[in-house]
Write a structure and sequence with these properties.
Strand order of the largest sheet: 1-2
Largest sheet: 2 strands, antiparallel
Helix content: 55-70%
Structural class: mainly alpha
Number of strands: 2
Oligomer: single chain
Order of helices and strands: EEHHHHHHHH
């Protein structure tokens, strides 16, 4: 029994073969149903890379949005109208996932079978590289909460909370730079080791963002 991955899809209108990442039949120009073998990168005609030209991505999105718009298929067959809605919905999902570097990394990890199991994984345990900062932050937060429970004024505890935020913010900047370096390595042909490093850095990044969000809640509560 053959397990070869198909490389063509058949147009339901004329029966001609079309590439899996094609949106319209090259023979009769009818819109094709959404290919189940597609991914967001190939759907937008992009290589599976992490550094994407934002203007190019925007242009591809707008061009396809116009081509798939349901108004163009008002008098088309039910199958074509359904295909335009499917293509439009998938296009919106693809654009949301690829427009930001962080969500792009997360999607790449998913494609490569290394996606984080969920938001809980980022908060499950303190990454070793952050142990010292997290320990100091928790101590400071405990003292600040004691001040607040004792009716201390915001002028007393807010500056301390802002100072506690600074080393975590510095770590965030450091991790963003490391992710950029790893993204460049992946685009240059990096293999499993780069992918694993990307995953580790991405989880640490999420942990840092959770810490910063916690500090913001403390500041505005």
């Amino acid at each position: 029994m053959s397990t070869t991955t198909p490389t063509l899809q058949a147009c339901r209108h004329c029966g001609a073969g079309a590439p899996l990442d094609a949106h319209f039949c090259p023979q009769c120009t009818k819109i094709l149903p959404l290919s189940r073998q597609a991914d967001y990168f190939s759907f937008l005609g992009l290589p599976r890379k992490l550094n994407i030209d934002a203007a190019d991505l925007e242009q591809r999105f707008r061009t396809l949005s116009r081509q798939f718009h349901p108004d163009y298929f008002y008098n088309a067959t039910p199958a074509e109208r359904r295909a335009s809605l499917e293509q439009s919905s998938y296009l919106n999902d693809a654009y949301r996932a690829l427009r930001q570097p962080a969500s792009r990394i997360e999607y790449l990890l998913k494609l490569e079978g290394m996606a984080p199991s969920g938001p809980a994984e980022a908060a499950k345990q303190v990454p070793p590289a952050l142990l010292e900062e997290v320990f100091a932050l928790n101590e400071e937060l405990d003292e600040i909460r004691e001040l607040r429970s004792g009716a201390a004024s915001p002028e007393e505890w807010r500056p301390r909370l802002e100072r506690a935020r600074q080393p975590i913010e510095a770590k965030r900047i450091e991790h963003e730079q490391q992710l950029q370096t790893l993204a460049a390595q992946w685009d240059a042909g990096g293999g499993p080791a780069v992918l694993q490093a990307l995953r580790d850095q991405f989880l640490e990044r999420n942990y840092i963002h959770n810490l910063l969000e916690g500090i913001e809640r403390e500041l505005h509560s």
